[in-house]
Amino acid sequence: MLFNSFVFVFAFLPLSLVLTYGAGARSQTAAKVVLFFLSLAFYAWWRPSQLPLLLISIAFNYVIGEWMQRAKAADRPRQVQAILAVGLLGDVLFLGWFKYANFVVDNVNWVAGSHIQLDPIALPLAISFFTFQKIAYLIDTARGETRSVRVLDFSLFAAFYPQLIAGPIVHFREVMPQLKGPLFGKLIARNLMVGLVLFSIGLFKKTAIADTLAIYVNPLFEAARQGHDLSLVSAWVAGVGFTFQLYFDFSGYSDMAIGLGRMLGVKLPLNFHSPLRAASITDYWRRWHMTLQRFVVAYIFQPLSLPLMRVAAAWSLTRWSEFLLATGLPIFITFVILGLWHGAGWTFVLFGAAPGIYLGVNEAWREYQADRRRKLKRAGRSIPSQVLARSRLPPDDPRRRCLRKRHVPSGNAGRRGSNLAQHDRIRDRAIHVRGVD
Fold first, then answer.
1. 8 Å CB contact between 134 and 258
2. Is 436 contained in some domain?
3. Of 275, 277, 257, 276, nearest to 267 (Cα)?
4. Is the same domain home to 233 and 364?
5. Which residue numbers are catalytic?
6. Is there a domain that residue 437 lies in?
7. CA atoms within a 13 Å half-sphere pointing along the CA-CB vector of 200
8. pLDDT value at position 137?
9. Low-confidence ranges of the chain (pLDDT < 70)
10. Structural domain total, the chain
11. DSSP run (H or E) holding 18
12. Is 183:265 a contact under the CB 8 Å cutoff?
């Protein structure tokens, strides 16, 4: 069931609001029970046979989480780590079997020339999203960032239908205090109005913009797939149009999810922040699918980078060798994993590797600039502040033009300064821009 479908907008959504808040008028527990079963019905709408898989995932991770809670209460850190390993292995195998088993078998057959037979495995709906959510919960539990909760509360957190299918990927500590708070299940007009506005914005982005662009973009990609030549203009229309189609489709769906959560009394985190206005590839990935990016940074990149930093320090590597080992390599591995998370195929590996390389080059440039500033500082010089100020501003900021055009009295200042450092300080004062330096 899609958020933009007629059955959802005109039947399921009104019914879920009426039933949830009707039950909430009696008790908060009743509201949670009703909303949990509504979430299960929402998930089962597409393929009821896959509902048991969601329930198994919820039950498995709840048991593992509570087991870790008891081990932490007994002050047994080794047992906590062992339980965490069991939980992570179970989640990864669960995801790996359904999403990657056919891909692995096909590649083994291709490399080894074998003839292993494996029937096509149906991919459960949203398995990547809810598995990542459970992995984050288990790691946070091992770190002591969660508390023991009732099975009903955890089940509602794991199955909450606004974020179940396409995110945002939420943390336990973000949602659980709201589900256990005194206002959950109570009808609040402000939540309904704010949620309705957000849902309407997302619905417009999805249906009026993304779906309209698809009418023009999809035939061009289909023609290219069939081997037809595209003109230069058609190729650009296809590429640029698909970029906007993908953004408005995904961000619109996320806005609808945030709006639905708010209508039901839960504030979900922002997932997109104008990524197409980013000033660099690093800035872009901070703005695009932000809840996924914070997951990969916290649970993949940092666990890879920190041990490698210690290795680099132990081996007394040079600056650039240390950068390649402790920053460049973890970035690349993280984005390859991110690409595979999106789908099982070599195109998805390339999809992850390409931005991994882009980010590595971007971070190398930033490291080079930082190293250059350190060297200039040791030499008693500095990069002029107007250059630094201009580099920090977005490309379309009018202050960049002002900084480029501003007259700098360098001649007299150079004669007055006894060295280059004095010259730079005088020039910095001459072009100081309030709020930028």
1. no
2. no
3. 257
4. no
5. 342
6. no
7. 6
8. 94
9. 381-437
10. 4
11. helix 13-24
12. yes
Residues 87, 12: one domain? yes
Is 325 found in the same domain as 423?
no
Residue 164's domain comprises: 1-181
pLDDT digits (tens, 9 = 90+) for 145-168: 888 899 999 999 999 999 998 879
What pLDDT, on the 0 to 100 scale, is given for residue 230?
A: 87
Nearest to 120 by CA among 134, 103, 140: 103
Are 8 and 63 members of one domain? Answer: yes
Task: For residue 132, count CB atoms less than 10 angstroms from its CB and return exposed for 0-12, middle for 13-18, buried for 19 or more.
Answer: buried
Measured between its terminal Cα atoms, the distance across the chain in Å is 51
Do the domain assignments include residue 348?
Answer: yes
The tokens describing 298, both together, are: 């916290």
Each residue's pLDDT tens digit, 316-359? 888 888 888 888 999 999 999 999 998 889 999 999 999 999 99
State residue 421's pLDDT score. Answer: 45
Same domain, 149 and 170: yes
The torsion region of residue 269 among left (phi > 0), alpha (psi -120 to 50) and beta comes to beta
- Which whole-number Å values give the CA distances from 338 to 47, 133, 284, 411, in the listed order? 26, 15, 15, 53
Q: How many CB atoms lie within 10 A of CB 69?
A: 18
Instruction: Please tell me the predicted confidence (pLDDT) of residue 416.
Output: 40
299 in the same domain as 168: no
In a domain, 12, yes or no: yes
